Prior knowledge:
By secondary structure, the chain is of the alpha/beta class. The protein is built from six helices and nine strands. Helix 1 links the parallel strand 2 and strand 3.
Amino acid sequence: MTEAFVSSHSTRTGPCRTVIFFFAGVLTYRNNFEAAAREIAKRYHDAKIVMIFPYGMANGIAGSALLRLLARQLTQIGYDFTREQSRRVATAAEIIREHAAAVDHIILIGHSAGGVVAYRTGLYLEETCGFPQVQVFAVGCPKFFIKDIAYNERFTYITGQNPDRITQIGRWRKPGSKLYRGKPGRELQIEFNPGHQGWRFHASYFLDSVWTDANEVFRSNSEELIARIHDMYSGEC
Length: 237
């Protein structure tokens, strides 16, 4: 079941010109994007920030119930991975229409499988609802077949410097297909906390996760990620 809420870090809860939506993947908790939302608030001084959990939240779930949640989420992800529209895409589009009526800038930021839903939701909004110029950023997301369309120029795919198993899943172009021959407009590799490996690396893109670089400068995953997104798309309210 899709869940959504307005972040406490929003610099505006009412009408504004910019709304930023985070899309979660599997086994994600309510506070997963709050560090990134705080960084957003530093850069977009008059914006609403909305969290969308297409596959529900994992808060308060443990043991066998957590395994059942994961199994259900993976089934839903398998459906969304291979189809351009789903109930979760339609629901996310309705949430965006509710929060982003008459705004100038809509930014969708998806993590893992949430990146697939973010891409498909942005395209659905453009083709079905008449929302122009939606910007989509997929972080640590599996690859999936996409058409060669102008919309992809507003689609940015972000990975880290360490191998991430999720980003090695799938491909953009379907072999032998004349339809699915697209790719993201931009593919970026960003330096994140080098101390994280494997699944920890995949789960930490949006967290504070502070480390010290070779120049003894403190850095954090959330700051590095949001700074790059802002540099690429700095449309302010």
